[in-house]
Design brief:
A hairpin with a 2-residue loop joins strand 14 and strand 15. The chain is 40% helix and 15% strand. The chain has a 7-stranded mixed β-sheet with strand order 4-10-9-8-7-5-6, sandwiched between helices. It folds into 3 domains: 30 residues, no CATH class; 132 residues, Aspartate Aminotransferase, domain 1 (Alpha-Beta Complex), CATH 3.90.1150; 273 residues, Aspartate Aminotransferase, domain 2, CATH 3.40.640.10. It is α/β, with parallel strands linked by helices.
Length: 448
């Protein structure tokens, strides 16, 4: 779409995440309306939103039950004095999240998003070890290629160089491990790769000294690396190492949480119970900002009792009534309609349809669980002027997808989709048809 002069001026006064404003102004996307699986721009063009905004709207945009829950909460209270108490609906969300979390992860706190949840989990870990006589444990180990959030500690835990290099030097106490994706060509199978890289965590813990390591922060499925999907054995090895060396296993489920992977949490899908789950994004299906941590219930004991032992952490909008009302509604819909189970069935259908793209000769691998799927592209075999200039297929696909009314997560060498769980097989057919057309258009441009 074309932006008028007023919108051009306003776009220069803000920024679109990880995008160059000068480029955005050429073809801006301004969305005044969203409903279900779709977004509409100012000119009325319709877009299939294949990632629910940005892996957020797990129930689609403006789900009626979530919207109604927020409307009802508006008539009660919209804010509670977080330094003095908590709303009743805030406590109900605590109970609701505890009821769906794996194991005994019933020590719950609500926040406004994923980065806040990650920060809270790491702070909880450090203070917990201090108050239980192990104050030297402060370091966190995470993977290269990972992304854990935009705030400073979450960014320091992240292994995606492009998203943090401009803000270096980073905070101390963060160590990176190679991702299985970075070693996959050195082993005969993916299972061997995952087993080797998981075992390497022990080498790092030992060489750093176990008495200094507080936690491992890891995504069950890594988005920014290209929907990297390790094996169940990978996480079981890491779980066992954390138990052996008294290290907290922190699952960053900001992206994978709430049904997408065929289970309520990816921890359930992998049958591994971490010590803390960090959530965000889909907790409220995008109706209001939201996030939460769920930790082992016995951790609460370290913060209970004498004055000064309380968790020294807070946010003005933590356990917000509006977020809580939306989160409760989302969980109710997910459980009542058995949507995690639907995600497993729909994901198998989606994978089968994506496999049909192999005839294009540019698909290297399809990864993921449930409806969360990533497709790795083969770009180095392409010919044509633009390809010779170093332009990869994903670079062109970013524009052809938008031209065809399709919103996906696209990198130069891969793309990802995660359709909301209100989708059905005909919607998947429409989605994959749009992907195929967009890929063909991109290939045509590259061959010029």
């Amino acid at each position: 779409m074309e932006a008028n002069e007023r919108y051009k001026r306003l776009l220069k006064k803000t920024f679109i995440d990880y995008n160059q404003t000068a480029k955005i102004i050429e073809k801006p996307l301004i969305f005044p309306k969203a409903e279900g699986l779709y977004q509409w721009d100012l000119e009325g063009k319709k877009y299939f939103d294949a990632i629910g905004g940005i892996f957020v709207a797990v129930l689609g945009h403006r789900h009626p039950r979530v919207v109604e829950a927020v409307k009802k909460q508006l008539d009660k209270t919209t804010f509670s004095p977080s330094l003095h108490g908590v709303s009743d609906v805030g406590l109900e969300l605590v109970d609701k999240l505890g009821s769906i979390s794996p194991g005994d992860l019933n020590f719950v706190k609500g926040f406004c998003g994923g980065s806040e949840s990650i920060e809270a989990a790491m702070k909880l870990s450090r203070q917990y070890f201090k108050q239980t006589g192990r104050g030297s444990k402060y370091k966190f180990i995470s993977n290269y290629l990972s992304y854990h959030g935009g705030t400073f500690a979450a960014m320091a835990a992240s292994g995606n160089a492009n998203r943090k290099i401009n803000f270096e030097p980073q905070m101390g106490g963060f160590i990176k491990m190679l991702s299985p994706m970075q070693l996959r060509d050195k082993f005969a199978s993916w299972a061997q790769t995952c087993a080797f890289t998981a075992q390497m965590f022990e080498d790092v813990i030992i060489n750093e000294n176990p008495d200094t390591v507080a936690g491992i922060v890891i995504e069950p499925i890594c988005n920014t690396g290209g929907i990297i999907t390790p094996t169940q054995e990978y996480f079981q090895i890491i779980r066992d190492l954390c138990d052996k060396y008294d290290v907290m296993l922190i699952f960053d489920e900001v992206l994978t949480g709430f049904g997408k992977t065929g289970a309520m949490f990816a921890a359930d899908a992998y049958q591994v119970v971490p010590d803390i789950i960090c959530s965000g994004k889909s907790l409220t299906s995008g109706v209001v900002p939201g996030g939460a941590i769920m930790a082992h219930e016995h951790y609460a004991d370290a913060f209970y009792g004498d004055l000064g032992r309380e968790f020294a952490h807070g946010h003005s909008y933590a356990n917000n009534p509006m977020t809580s009302a939306a989160g409760i509604a989302v969980i109710d819909v997910l459980t009542e309609e058995k949507l995690p189970e639907k995600a497993e069935r729909l994901g198998a259908y989606l994978e089968n349809k994506l496999n049909g793209l192999n005839s294009l000769g540019i698909i290297k691998e399809i990864r993921g669980k449930g409806v969360l799927r990533g497709v790795e592209l083969v770009s180095d075999q392409l010919t044509g002027k633009k390809a010779k200039e170093g332009l990869k297929l994903g670079n062109v696909l970013k524009q052809t997808a938008i031209d065809n009314g399709l919103i996906m997560r696209i990198d130069p060498d891969w793309f990802a989709v995660c359709p909301p769980l209100i989708a059905n097989e005909p919607d998947i057919d429409e989605l994959v048809s749009l992907i195929e057309k967009s890929l063909k258009d991109a290939l045509s441009i590259l061959s010029e």
